[in-house]
């Protein structure tokens, strides 16, 4: 008789221990599951940033810049709106590491730029061409936004002193400024730049 209460007490203590272990496992499991959920373990896998369909692509030697542009065409306005919305002021397209492997496309702006220069009665008249290693969407964007490009280039040209533009270094600096203007307008309007170089096909100061 004296051993029976002890046996019941031992059995009850064992059940409590098992119950505590089960509760601890449940709590621990819930905590672990919560941690995994917070970390995104149970969420759909992130596929990473998707390629912008409006982004011009490099054209390999032997390829057609026009055909590449057609192959990547998106409904009019959609790609540009998405690119502009995603990138704000837009992004520069990187120059290829090995230019010899890619096809350059050239485009001549048809009308020369004519402007008086600062602090002089002389005026400059320059004809400009551009090149890009990207598909024809870059050239198409230049054609579409040529009015904005012309306005900015003419305002910049009017601020140039005659003695600066009369030197080779001054002309090279002017090339760089025009390239920046064109790419900045393309980035603002389409989301991407893409002009690799600017060339003078005629340059007259008189």
UniProtKB/TrEMBL annotation:
**Which Pfam families has this protein been placed in?**
FliL
| Lineage: superkingdom | Bacteria
Cell inner membrane among keywords: yes
Spell out the subcellular localization from the entry: Cell inner membrane; Cell membrane
Keyword rRNA-binding carried by entry:
no
Q: How does it sit in the membrane?
A: Single-pass membrane protein
GO cellular-component term (any): bacterial-type flagellum basal body
Keywords, ordered alphabetically: Cell inner membrane, Cell membrane, Cell projection, Chemotaxis, Cilium, Flagellar rotation, Flagellum, Membrane, Transmembrane, Transmembrane helix
What role does it play?
A: Controls the rotational direction of flagella during chemotaxis.
Family the entry assigns: Belongs to the FliL family.
Q: What is this protein called?
A: Flagellar protein FliL
């Amino acid at each position: 008789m004296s051993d029976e209460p002890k046996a019941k007490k031992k059995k009850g203590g064992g059940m409590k221990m098992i119950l505590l272990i089960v509760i601890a496992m449940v709590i621990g499991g819930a905590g672990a599951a919560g941690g995994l959920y917070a970390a995104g373990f149970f969420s759909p896998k992130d596929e990473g940033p998707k390629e912008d369909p409006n982004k011009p692509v490099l054209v390999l030697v032997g390829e057609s810049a026009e055909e590449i542009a057609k192959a990547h065409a998106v409904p009019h306005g959609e790609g540009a709106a998405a690119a502009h919305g995603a990138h704000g002021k837009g992004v520069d397209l990187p120059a290829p590491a090995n230019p010899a492997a890619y096809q350059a496309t050239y485009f001549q702006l048809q009308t020369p730029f004519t402007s008086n220069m600062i602090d002089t009665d002389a005026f400059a008249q320059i004809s400009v061409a551009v090149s890009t290693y990207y598909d024809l969407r870059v050239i198409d964007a230049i054609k579409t936004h040529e009015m904005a490009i012309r306005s900015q280039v003419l305002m910049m040209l009017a601020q140039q002193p005659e003695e600066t533009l009369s030197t080779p270094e001054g002309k090279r600096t002017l090339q760089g400024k025009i390239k920046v203007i064109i790419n900045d307008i393309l980035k603002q309007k389409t989301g991407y730049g893409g002009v690799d170089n600017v060339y003078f096909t005629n340059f007259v100061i008189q």
